[in-house]
Fold this sequence. Notes:
- The protein has 308 residues and is of the alpha/beta class.
- It has helices at residues 11-23, 34-43, 64-68, 87-93, 105-123, 143-156, 172-181, 203-208, 225-228, 244-256, 282-287, 293-299; strands at residues 3-7, 27-31, 48-52, 54-55, 58-59, 75-80, 98-101, 162-165, 190-194, 233-237, 258-259, 268-269, 273-278, 302-305.
- It has a five-stranded parallel sheet, with helices on both faces. The protein has a five-stranded parallel sheet with strand order 9-10-13-8-14. Strands 4-5 form a two-stranded antiparallel sheet.
- The model is unreliable at 126-131 (pLDDT under 50).
- Residues 3-117 form the Response regulatory domain.
Amino acid sequence: xxxxxxxxxxLVLSEMLVDQMMRLGHKAxxxxxxxxxxxxxxxxxxxxxxxxxxxxxxxxxxxxxxFKNTSSCPEVIIITGQGEADGAEKAVLSGAWGYIEKPHVxxxxxxxxxxxxxxxxxxxxxxxIPVALKRKNIIGSSPAINKCLDQVAQAAASxxxxxxxxxTGTGKELFAKAIHENSSRCHKNFVVVDCAALxxxxxxxxxxxxxxxxxxxxxxxxxxxxxxxxxxxxxxxxVGELPLNTQKKFLRLLxxxxxxxxxxxxxxxxxxxxxAATNRNLEECVSRDEFRDDLLFRLQAVTIKLPP
Length: 308
C-alpha cells in the first residue's frame, strides 16, 4: 500500500483518481491548490504525488522541485489538460517520474504508478534489482548496473525518448530491449535500425518506406521500419551516424509522428516510441556541426550512460 497525494483543481477528476487509488489498495488524499499541496507534502509522508500543471495559484511543473525537496521526496507524475508536443520531455527533465495528459489519465495511470512505486522501493534497498523488472541477458548487479536498471524502470513507465550511451560491446541494445519489454508496448514490435550499416542512399526508403516506381527497382510498395514500429518501439542503433539531411526529417517525425514514404504525396502516421543508442559523444558532434542540437534535445529526455 502506498500513500498518494492528488493536487488538481478538477474536483470530478480528483475524486475519480482517489477512487481508483483506493481500489488499488492505496491511501489517497486530494487538494485543489498548489499551496495546500506543498503544505501537505511538508507535513505528511507521500510515496507519489499526482500534480496538475495549471493550478489556481501557480504552475505545478515549475514547483516540482519543492516537492522533491520535502522529507519524503515523492515520485511526481504530472497530469495536464493542456498537452504540449514536448510536454513529457519537459516534465522528465524537470525531475518528474512521468507525464500524462488528462484525457488518458485513467487509462494510463496504473502502469506509471506501478513502475514509479517499483522504482521507489528499489531506491530504498541497496544493490538489489526489482523482481518485476525484465532484464533478459543483462548480467551483473554492480551499483553502476543497478543505476542503469533504475533508469530502465523509469523510462519504461512513460513514452519519452531515451538515449542509451556507451562504448561498443556494453550492451546498448539489451538495455533498449529491456525498456521495450517492461513498457506497455511490449506486445508490439521492437524494430532495430542499424544506422551505421545503412547505405546513405537507402536510409530514407528503409525508414519511411516507398511507393511502387519511386526509384529504379521499386517494383512494389514497401512499408518502412517506422511503419513496422507502429504501436511499438523504434530502436535507432548508432544514431550519430545518421546524415544531417536525414536528421532533419527525423526531427519532424519525432515532433509530429507523421512521415511521407519515398515517392508518395501523402502523409502517414506511426505511433512509435523511440529509443536511440550511440557510442559517440553527441554533444561534441553538435559542436562540430555533425549532429543537430534540436534533435539531440529530443532524443535525450532520458539518458542512460552504460558503464564500460
